[in-house]
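WARN retry 2 of 3 for item q-0093 after timeout on previous attempt; input resubmitted unchanged.
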Amino acid sequence: MLRIENLDVYHGDAQALDGVALTVDQGAIAAIVGANGAGKTSLIHTIAGMHRPARGRIVFKGQDIAGLPSHKVCNLGIGQVAEGRQVFPSLTVAENLEMGAMLPRAKGKRVENLAFVLTMFPKLRERFTQAAGTLSGGEQQMLAIGRCLMGSPELVMFDEPSLGLAPAAVHDVLAAIRDLNRAGLTCVLVEQNVAVSLKLARQAYVLENGRVTLAGSGEALLADERVRQAYLGM
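OK item q-0093 returned
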């Protein structure tokens, strides 16, 4: 579904991504792991159209989308659940979800998508008229995922979805990602909990200093001695 070839990205004079190449199969969860500053968020933002690459291709469903503006990338079917949730705190849950349905591709599916989101996250139904800023961290993450789903994405990139959440909320959010994948959604997962993300992932990549240094199945990387020493403390 997604293929990245020889991707170079700079922030000013600093190179954030250096020759990155990876693929994401349709229906897979692909985990991208690495230390802070390795380039994970830069990769997500470049795919989403928020950064323009200096070189390389980003091919989504056969179309090179490198350099397209983010609203066009979204309307092609790539969604993003950003780090830090970034809900609109003064808007209600209902209004936040409506914001996600504004893409042209999603307008005709608003009712269907809303029913799916509220079934997936019943807490949002309970909080429907409540201001998003009054929700717990876990509920805000559910809202951020729900808002993304309102845009009818075929691939969703999750950037640190468990960051700052209580353990019970982390479990719920990661279980929701697994369930969405089982329902047919293709997922890219950038997650600080390396062990959990590799257990969930069919495909996995390790980013170090803007380069892919290891690739394989989640199971294979979980068993790799280099990964265990660097990221799992084993």
